[in-house]
Each structure stands twice: as C-alpha cells, then as structure tokens.
Amino acid sequence: MIPGSFDYHRPATVQEAARLVASLGEDARVVAGGHSLIPMMKLRMAAPAHLIDLQGVEGLAGIAVSGGEVRIGAMTTQHMLIEDAALAQAAPLVREAALQIADPQVRYMGTIGGNLANGDPGNDMPGLMQCLDAAFTLVGPEGARQVRAREFYFGAYDTARAEDEILSEIAFSGHAGAGYAYEKQKRKIGDYATAAAAVLLRMEGGRCAAASVAMTNLADRPIFSQAAADALVGSPLDAAALDAAVAAMQGDIAPGADTRGPVEFKRHVAGVMLRRAVARAASRA
Ligand code: FAD
C-alpha cells in the first residue's frame, strides 16, 4: 500500500523539532528510522498530515561512555549500538540484544529512540532499558525532563511521553563485571519475540548478590519483574531459586494469544527464556 499524503519537515535542532511538534499538534509525527512508522503509514494504520524528520537534527546520534556511565542519543541506530567498542565493553547486554533485532537492513535504519518511543510491546529495547534501569530525556516546549524506563510504559503505544515531547537521550550505568544475557525466542530471523528475557546479575561468594529481570512481548508493555529478581538474590542460583524466579515472573506477565501462539505456550517459552538467561548470565558473572 501507499501512505497518505503528508507535508515533510526537516528541522536542524531538537528545539526546532519540538516547536514544530507543538505547533502542528496531533496531526504531526516525528520520523526517525521510519521502520515502524512507515509500515504503519503504508497500512493506513497511521496517517499523519505532517512528518517531522529527525535525521537532520544535530547532536541526536552518538554514544558517549565516561566513568562507567553511558549516554546514547535517540537517533543512534541499532547498527551503531552493535559496532561501538566502548559500549560493548561498558554494557555488553545492549550489543547482545541489538544483534537479535530484525535483520541488518532494519538495524541500519532503526534507531534506539524510535524503538523506545514507539511503545510497541514487541520491541526489544524497552525491556532491555528497564533491566538496565535507564533514564530517558524528553524535550518539549517547556524544556527537558527525565523519566525512568521502568515508569515510561503504560500500555501498548501508551507511554509517559507527551505528544509534544521528543525523546532525545537514553542514559544508564554500565554493568562491567556483572553477568548478563538477552535470550529471545522468535519464529524466524527478523521476527519479533515470542518471548524474551533480559537478565543482569552479580555474584558474591557463590550467591547472587544483585539481580535485574525484564521480559519482552509478554504483556501490553515491557515487564520489569522485581519479584523474579528478588527470588534470585541471596540464592546460589540453584534449581529451587530458578523455579521461584520463574513462578514470580509468571505472576507479573500477562501474555495474550495471537499468531505467535496461545497463552500457555507463551508462558512456557517465557519460563524457558528466563531460565536460559539466568544460566548464561551466571556463567559470565
Ligand atoms: P520510526 O519508525 O521512525 O518511529 C516509530 C515511532 O516512534 C513513531 O511513532 C515516531 O513518531 C516515534 N519516534 C521515533 N523517534 C522518536 C523520538 N526520538 N522521540 C519521540 N518519538 C519518536 N524491533 C525490535 O525491537 N525487534 C525486532 O525483532 C524487530 N523486528 C523488525 C522486523 C521488521 C521487518 C521491521 C520493519 C521492523 C522491526 N523492528 C523490530 C522495529 C525496528 O527496530 C524499528 O526500526 C524500531 O522499532 C523503530 O525505530 P525507528 O527509528 O525506525 O522509528
């Protein structure tokens, strides 16, 4: 299908982009890599009268790692996340997850900002950022504010971002020395997750000293499972702890039946992903 007609805007600064979004109102949408929005426009599920292209906005793309802290501009592509050596060292979980998104063609265009702002529960970056306890910077007509990833998602395509705000930056602490894993089950290469688990953990004296767990595509939003993490902490990550973590996670997710399978199947796959992610993270801790 062919999208409806629209006016095209190409601002040079994030402030100019925010002013355009505010003045054009609900008829306007920003476009980043276009790999979620353009398909929706082609299907006429979105028909913005104005497209505000962020590709020409200065300073929105790039990765900075300093003192173990990571800052990523919203227009940074998934390919850039994979290629950045400093990011791979400070937060290897990001590279591991980005490599499992779609295929190289999509990753050359798709941005971390678009993936996070979209609010699609199938996207991989939102759960990942909840696991990392990232903070998002939103720029609007009144200036900038920060929202934590764990408080950003309300439901499918429903987030804490106001319509006149632009996501400009993502920040989180690196996890050097922690065990990490992103486990994703999908029907085929290029597909969204049937279920995915992001896990970070630290070990001390053979016991889990800290853990973070987030699940993808198992509810209408990414699920940060504090209960699953609590079940791991203090344990030697034995079978009983894994069973308890999976049971706790099952209490937090709410998958729906769709073309990826019935609810029971998704719950089963979610458990398998979490067990695998904890085991692999532990092997790296
Ligand atoms: P766009 O499509 O340009 O924008 C998406 C939405 O976010 C729009 O509503 C736009 O207005 C808004 N937006 C974009 N940037 C900003 C910003 N900075 N501030 C505020 N709002 C903004 N994703 C996965 O996570 N996992 C997958 O397995 C996966 N598989 C895919 C397979 C295919 C075949 C395709 C086409 C896409 C797939 N995707 C997948 C989605 C892909 O990663 C998208 O590129 C990404 O989700 C959106 O990023 P984008 O830069 O293309 O955003």
From TrEMBL:
Keywords: FAD, Flavoprotein, Oxidoreductase. PROSITE patterns: FAD_PCMH. Residues 1-177 form the FAD-binding PCMH-type domain. This is Carbon monoxide dehydrogenase, medium subunit. It comes from the Bacteria. One of its GO terms (molecular function) is oxidoreductase activity.
